[in-house]
Specification:
The complex is a heterodimer of chains A (about 525) and B (about 700).
Chain A: E1 6-10, H1 20-34, E2 38-44, E3 51-55, E4 59-64, E5 68-70, E6 73-74, H2 82-92, E7 96-100, H3 105-116, E8 120-125, H4 134-147, E9 152-155, H5 158-168, E10 175-177, E11 235-240, H6 249-262, E12 266-271, H7 277-287, E13 293-297, H8 304-308, E14 313-316, H9 325-332, E15 336-340, H10 345-348, E16 354-357, H11 361-376, H12 385-392, H13 395-410, H14 415-419, H15 422-428, H16 434-442, H17 453-461, H18 465-488, H19 518-528, H20 530-533
Parallel strand pairs in A: 1-2, 1-7, 2-4, 7-8, 8-9, 9-10, 11-12, 11-14, 12-13, 14-15, 15-16
Antiparallel strand pairs in A: 3-4, 5-6
Helix pairs in contact in A: 1-13, 3-4, 6-7, 6-11, 9-12, 17-18
Chain B: H1 4-15, H2 25-28, H3 57-66, H4 76-98, E1 129-130, H5 139-167, H6 173-207, H7 220-229, H8 233-244, H9 251-256, H10 272-275, H11 282-290, H12 292-299, H13 306-323, H14 337-367, H15 375-391, H16 404-420, H17 428-443, H18 455-475, H19 482-485, H20 493-498, H21 512-528, H22 534-561, H23 563-586, H24 594-615, H25 620-638, H26 642-674, E2 681-682
Antiparallel strand pairs in B: 1-2
Classes of the chains: A alpha/beta (about 525), B mainly alpha (about 700).
Chain lengths: ~525, ~700
């Protein structure tokens, strides 16, 4: 029986604010609750949302009153969060503090305080940062501070992992790659049969490594009918993004007139708002494209699917992207995806669902043209995408993999298993070489970092010539505050919050979201081949 | 000892498909915190640079083997040597069942048979680039470039020396300003002559092509192609002087190839709307707007690219014509060059007179401006302001061939700005980027925008811009010429080439050059307010305008004309500054004749002022003559002790030359030496720089 944990997710960004990180936290928390853990969320107070709230599934949200400075990130006061945080942690008997988003100062503070209080910490990074500009340098130094003493880091893509490892000078084995996911049922294509309880054919061997069953996911009886496009049928290209510079709106603005000029019977639907929308509108007016480009303005996340299913191609011209959930959503809706090859995007979807372009106007136009031509030739079996995406990404799987991280840092699985194998051999053979050194800093329990203040200080000291000393001072002050709080607000006087009855852990053998097997891709290729003969 | 990592690697690669072993905990786990790097458990960026080697492995083993981590690490060597064999034996069977059937790939959608924190050594950080765009410096070019800074520092020193001289009453203020004005006048004459020379070349080139003028629009791109592909690059550059009175080195070529330079010049009907806009400097605007297109066509290096550029301009001007309802009759030929030059000179003289009288009127106010402030604050403040001037001065030497695209910008600001009705000035940097984007984008999107360098044209392009701005500044009669030296005021990136009428507002770039000029003028103002008499205040302020406002323009232009002028100017400035400092420091006694001479010059100044007020028109020439006479009298007055002065000034010159040589050489050498610490990291996580052909909406967020 695997242990269950009490987890506190800490992030500045949470509902009611919409966004990718917010829904990530919510979905992950929900699935973790489903797996028998207790999860609370700590965020700052939003307008109209203060105090303690409960969301669906018994998810408890603490809205801590804090000063918001920029785009709902709180002001980085290093210590002021500690009393409230300690109270919440003790009240809820938290074991693991899981922070999200590197721009959230609340999360960094929580990790610092949690380590002072002797808790395990995990950090999830959702974004990419460069190394050149001044803002990045500052952010990276702060991230280094926060992550000097973290137990494990989760990144949403391999590119993100590389970036985080470099930014925070982390041991790469301390960093796991666990992608985002989508709720595939919320992104069904138009006319897709509503799923019954479980598609019977999607059960496959839970043991990884076995040759996959070729008829596992594709020969489902529920496969919808093909959409055959005639040579003159209109093709709709959908763009849903915030219209910012780094989302590539400039590229989009430049590419749209050329795409529309080169391909009759195409039209665009653009949803989203932002400072660049004025450029798009000007482009539409100058080229007199009002009847072929539809601008919907800002839409809610729940309406995304309804917009997506109106189109055939999803165009994603972003300039930087850690994961790109929206292209997964689009593929799940059965759209053929044209996207720029930046950041973590190339890792996200298999090649038969996407056409990649360089972040250049010409290449984007060419790639879109290629996608349109492929659709017109009916080469792309877009109706199969939904089932495949469902098999690639699911929050249940994400929660499962996150749980393994929790197990690893809390010692439920051995360090050898968590980090690699030869460590165990070292230990067994009694070599007192690196192993003793490891135990000196990592603590006697396997796979965990020591809580001793001197060890923590050693880790912080390495952050830089001046920064290291400054960080050490911060840690010491934090520790003193902790002692002071223990004295003034003793643990005994803090009420223990009764938990919800835990859910029974669902033993789910359904293979969903674990990723596509290579055989599935070959199967897809085999099945999409005859269409070309038609 | 042999590094065991090799063993490890061969063992695994024989068993599995991956050429590299998986990164395991023992290789990344910390050894000891006593090691050289502060926290070896963490991957430092320098570990990641060789993407093949695992981050900590080699250094870990080296530490173990060499025993640099003393004491506790001593037994590690044997243990580590022992380990790989054990791994091979035991892990082989186990991981064959558990681990890969396939190689690890950086994909998220595929079902990996690896744990989530698996770090593949073959692919981890494989796309990391380190210092990809670093261009190594050479010593002598660096020294040559540093002369610009020396010039500015020297002019500031000369200014301070002059102030000290006036303040201690060693030097009569009128002689200072007389010399300054005389030098300014000479400089202006020289500059005017250069400009005239170049615009004459352009005019000839245009006259040669008037026969081509009244054709339709259609054959134009072809002709553009001819003009760019056919004649030499030099000839196409020569069209620029007409644009903004620039392009020094090409002048000779201009006279030699007049006919081929501008086949599609001014009088084509598309541009007429621009020509008839009432403007202070009609003539220059005419010639400039005429040569916009050829110059831009010349900006794209290959002849084949000119087509697309021409198309853009066609769209641009076609668009403009749609907008403007004024369709004026066709106007053949250009305006006479003499006429325009005369007007230009008149306008310059006018603005000079304006400045002169404004200062004259303001100097009593300036004199008592900071009476309530103590002198110490003034010294500190002026020190900081002059430091700001030096640090924020626009030293840029744009060695970018595509800068030619910006040459069109000032003029299309004049034309396009009028048509669209008020276009916002954008900083030159933005214009440059826009121009670059347009040029390269139109050429081929694959060309990286800023990388290519072509030396022969690079020197000519920038100062042409500056000259253009200089004339623009004077013709629009800006009262403080310092702003015209800042090279910021004229550029609209979009209207220049893109063809839209959207003015991009000035943003994201602080106009540091005007900050520098303003700081210097403010310093001179507060310094002048320490002076006791109105004449002194007036002289110092006027002198500061000459030094900080006009002189940088001239220096830039001289640098553009020829490097020899630049060097001569630098040496002169250096010697002057050294001599001045030597005199100020070394010769403490005020010369005996100075008081009399100053009184004499005071009277002369008063007389000149009275005369000016009577006549209401006073030309710089008269003023300079006055100044010259005064200076003569003054020198006669002080010649008694000139021997001590000469001695000190010679000493100062020698010392200053030594200091300058050491500083320039030393700093250049130091900068080259510092290059080894350069460490830029690029990777797929960096935001991509979009390449957009019709760079209409480009700005960094």
């Amino acid at each position: 029986m695997a242990p269950t944990y009490r987890i506190a997710m800490v992030c500045d960004f949470f509902f009611p604010q919409p966004g990718g990180i917010e829904s990530h936290i919510y979905q992950l928390s929900t699935k973790l609750i489903d797996r028998g853990h207790k999860v609370i969320i700590i965020t700052h107070a939003y307008e109209g949302r203060t105090g303690v709230r409960y969301l669906t599934n018994g998810l408890k949200v603490y809205h801590v009153p804090f000063l918001v400075i920029y785009r709902s990130a709180t002001f980085p006061t290093v210590f002021s969060f500690f009393p409230v945080f300690r109270n919440i942690v003790l009240r809820e008997r938290i074991d693991i503090v899981h922070g999200h988003a590197s721009l959230s100062s609340l999360c960094h503070e929580a990790i610092l305080h949690a380590r002072t209080m002797g808790l395990r910490t995990v950090f999830t990074d959702h974004s990419l940062f460069g190394f050149a500009d001044a803002a990045s340098i500052l952010t990276n130094k702060l991230l280094k501070f926060a992550l000097s003493d973290v137990d494990h880091v989760i990144c949403v893509s391999h590119t993100c992992k590389e970036n985080t490892v470099l930014r925070a000078s982390l041991d790469p084995l301390m960093v796991s790659v666990i992608p985002n996911a989508v709720v595939a049922d919320n992104f069904r294509p138009l006319g897709y049969p509503t799923t019954t309880s479980t598609p019977p054919s999607s059960i496959s061997s839970p043991i990884p490594g076995l040759p996959p069953n070729p008829s596992s996911s594709l020969s489902s009886s529920l496969t919808p009918p093909r959409r055959i496009l005639g040579p003159h049928d209109p093709i709709t290209i959908v763009v849903i993004s915030r219209l910012f510079y780094n989302k590539g709106t400039d590229l989009l603005t430049a590419a749209i007139p050329r795409i529309l000029a080169a391909h009759p019977n195409t039209r665009f639907i653009i949803a989203g708002s932002g400072p660049k929308s004025i450029d798009l509108e000007q482009m539409i007016e100058q080229n007199v494209l009002q009847d072929r480009v539809e601008m919907l303005g800002p839409i809610r996340h729940s309406e995304v699917r309804d917009v997506m299913v109106r189109g055939h191609i999803y165009l994603h011209p972003s300039l930087t992207e850690a994961f790109g959930t929206v292209i997964v959503e689009a593929a799940s809706c059965g759209l053929y995806v044209v996207c720029t090859q930046v950041g973590g995007i190339p890792e996200v979807l298999p090649g038969h669902m996407t056409v990649f372009a360089k972040p250049e106007e010409d290449d984007l136009v060419a790639a879109t043209g290629k996608a349109i031509a492929a659709l017109r030739r009916n080469e792309v079996r877009t109706e199969l995408f939904h089932e495949q995406v469902k098999n690639m990404y699911s929050w249940t799987n994400v929660a499962e993999r996150t749980e393994r991280v929790y197990n690893g840092i809390s010692g439920a699985i051995s360090e050898a298993e968590f980090y690699g194998y030869d460590h165990l051999k070292d230990h067994r053979n009694g070599s007192n070489g690196s192993w003793t050194a490891v135990t000196a800093t990592r603590g006697m329990r396997s796979g965990v970092q020591s809580f001793a203040l001197i060890d923590r200080l050693k880790r912080y000291y390495g952050c830089g010539v001046w920064a290291g000393k400054l960080f050490c001072v911060c840690v010491i002050v934090d520790y003193l505050i902790f002692l002071f709080l223990e004295l003034v607000f003793p643990r005994e006087s803090i009420d223990i919050c009764p938990d919800w009855p835990r859910k029974k852990k669902v033993v789910d053998t359904r293979r969903e979201g674990g990723g596509l097997e290579w055989g599935d891709v070959e199967e897809y290729r085999r099945r999409s081949r005859p269409s070309r003969l038609r | 000892m042999a590094p065991p990592s090799g063993l490890h690697q061969t063992a695994l690669s024989s068993d599995f498909e991956t050429p590299f072993p998986p990164l395991v905990r023992s290789s990344t786990a910390p050894v000891a915190f006593k090691s050289h790097r502060a926290d070896p458990s963490h991957l430092a960026p320098e570990d990641a640079y060789s993407p093949v080697s695992p981050p900590r492995r080699t250094s870990l083993y080296n530490v173990d083997g060499s025993g640099s981590g003393s004491g506790t690490n001593a037994p590690n060597g044997s243990a580590n040597e022992l380990r790989p064999r054990l791994i091979r034996r035991k892990e082989g069977s186990r991981s064959r069942s558990r681990r890969r059937q396939r190689r690890f790939q950086k994909l998220l959608w595929v079902k990996q048979s690896y744990p989530d924190n698996y770090t593949d050594q073959a692919t981890f950080l494989e796309k990391l680039q380190r210092n990809p765009r670093v261009k190594p410096y050479d010593f002598w070019p660096l020294v040559a470039d540093s002369t610009v800074i020396v010039q500015q520092v020297c002019s500031v020193i000369i200014f301070v020396v002059c102030f000290v001289g006036i303040f201690q009453e060693r030097v009569s203020p009128v002689s200072v300003v007389g010399f300054g004005s005389f030098a300014t006048f000479i400089g202006w004459l020289l500059w005017d002559w250069w400009v005239g020379e170049e615009s004459l070349g352009a005019q000839r080139a245009m006259d040669g092509t008037t026969t081509h003028s009244h054709r339709g629009r259609d054959p134009r791109p072809v002709r553009h192609q001819d003009s760019c592909g056919g004649p030499t690059r030099n000839a196409s550059i020569v069209s620029l002087p007409g644009a903004g009175a620039g392009a020094g080195t090409g002048t000779g070529a201009a006279t030699s190839t007049p006919a081929s330079a501008l086949p599609s010049a001014a009088p084509s009907p598309r541009l007429d709307q621009h020509l008839h806009i009432p403007r202070f400097s009609v003539g220059p605007a005419d010639s400039r707007s005429a040569s916009i297109e050829p110059s831009t066509a010349a900006a794209s290096p290959a002849g084949s690219r000119a087509q697309s550029v021409a198309d853009f301009h066609e769209a641009h001007y076609g668009h403009h014509r749609q907008r403007s309802s004024i369709s004026s009759p066709i106007r053949g030929g250009g305006v006479l060059p003499g006429n325009s030059r005369l007007q230009l000179r008149l306008s310059t003289i006018k603005s000079a007179v304006l400045i002169y009288f404004t200062l004259l009127g303001l100097s009593p106010i300036l004199k008592s401006l900071t009476r309530s402030t103590s002198s110490d604050s003034i010294w500190a403040m002026s020190f900081w302001l002059l430091a700001i001037n030096i640090f924020f001065f626009d030293y840029s030497i744009n060695n970018n061939p595509f800068t030619q695209a910006t040459i069109t910008n000032p003029h299309s600001n004049q034309t396009g700005g009028i048509v669209t009705g008020g276009s916002t000035p954008a900083p030159a940097g933005a214009a440059l980027r826009a121009g670059v984007g347009a040029g390269t984008g139109a050429a081929t999107p694959l060309i990286p925008t800023l990388t290519s360098t072509s030396p022969p044209t690079s020197g000519t392009s920038t100062p042409a811009t500056n000259a253009g701005t200089g004339t623009g500044g004077t013709s629009s009669r800006q009262p403080v010429p310092g702003t015209s030296s800042s090279s910021t005021p004229t550029a609209v990136p979009t209207t220049a080439t893109g063809g839209t009428t959207t003015p991009i507002p000035a943003q994201h770039k602080f106009p540091i050059a005007s900050l520098s000029t303003n700081a210097a003028l403010m310093a001179s103002t507060v310094l002048a307010s320490r002076l006791p008499s109105t004449g002194q205040v007036f002289s110092l302020t006027l002198f500061s305008i000459e030094v900080f406002g006009l002189f940088p323009v001239f220096r830039r232009y001289a640098r553009h004309r020829s490097f020899r002028y630049h060097v001569i100017l630098t040496v002169l400035l250096l010697l002057g500054a050294g001599a001045g400092v030597g005199i100020i420091i070394g010769a403490p006694c005020p010369p005996p004749g100075s008081t009399t001479s100053s009184s004499v010059t005071m009277a002369a100044a008063a007389a000149a002022g009275a005369a000016g007020r009577e006549l209401l028109v006073i030309s710089p020439t008269e003023e300079v003559i006055d100044g010259g006479i005064m200076a003569l009298g003054w020198t006669r007055g002080v010649c008694e002790c000139w021997q001590t002065w000469l001695k000190h000034s010679l000493l100062g010159m020698i010392v200053s030359c030594l200091i300058a040589a050491v500083a320039m050489g030393g700093c250049s050498w130091w900068l080259i030496g510092l290059q080894k610490y350069k460490n830029e990291i690029y990777g797929p996580w960096d935001p991509a720089r979009p390449i957009i052909i019709s760079r209409r909406y480009y700005d960094d967020e």
